[in-house]
Each structure stands twice: as structure tokens, then as C-alpha cells.
From TrEMBL:
Residues 14-103 form the STAS domain. The lineage of its organism: Bacteria, Pseudomonadati, Pseudomonadota, Gammaproteobacteria, Methylococcales. It comes from the Bacteria. InterPro entries: STAS_dom (IPR002645), STAS_dom_sf (IPR036513). Transmembrane segments: none annotated. Pfam families: STAS (PF01740). This is Phospholipid transport system transporter-binding protein.
């Protein structure tokens, strides 16, 4: 099982390292959501995500909801293909958060 780490590269840029799965996302991950208050715009780079499932998509949606409540703009970069496919199946691909962006 791969761990899930949220790495702060700068006050506005974070990298997710590890698996975004049911096995790695827990209450502690949800409690760490406060990093989204760091600035008005936060970038989350998903290029180091090793695997994902619907729990990863659910976590991203929670981050989006939290950022809206706190008036923070959240931008996802390098979204894994599997997450994009899950977003498409769920209808979330229409959200600007899931637009494919080059680095």
C-alpha cells in the first residue's frame, strides 16, 4: 500500500504524492484540508499520484467544495487519466477544475 502525502512546495503550490484510494484516504487526510486556506489561489499538482479510484475523485470534490466555502480558487494540474475518466463518468468533467492543463 502506497501512502498519501501532501507536500507543500510553496505557500500556493502543493504536490500530492502516493495513491488517492480508499486505502490511503482517511479522516486524517480530510482534517488536513486546511492547507487550502493558504492563499487566494492554490495549485495542486497530481503528477506524483501512483494510483487512484473513486475515493480520489471524492477527495478532489471535497477540496473543491471547501475552497468555494473559503473563497479560494483551486487549480489541479497533471490530473491522472484514471481520475479524468472517473470525472467524465460522474459528469464532473464539465467543471473547470477538471480541464486538462499543461504544466
Amino acid at each position: 500500500m502506497s501512502q498519501l502525502n501532501i507536500i507543500k512546495e510553496s505557500p500556493v503550490h502543493f504536490v500530492i504524492d502516493g495513491a488517492l484510494t480508499f486505502a490511503t484516504i482517511d479522516k486524517q487526510t480530510l482534517k488536513s484540508i486546511s492547507f487550502l486556506k493558504a492563499a487566494r489561489e492554490i495549485t495542486i499538482d497530481l503528477s506524483l499520484v501512483s494510483s487512484t479510484d473513486s475515493a480520489g475523485l471524492a477527495l478532489m470534490i471535497e477540496w473543491i467544495k471547501y475552497s468555494r466555502q473559503n473563497r479560494t480558487q483551486i487549480v489541479f494540474k497533471n490530473i491522472p487519466e484514471q481520475l479524468l475518466n472517473l470525472a467524465k463518468l460522474s459528469g464532473f468533467d464539465q467543471s473547470s477544475h477538471f480541464a486538462v492543463q499543461a504544466d
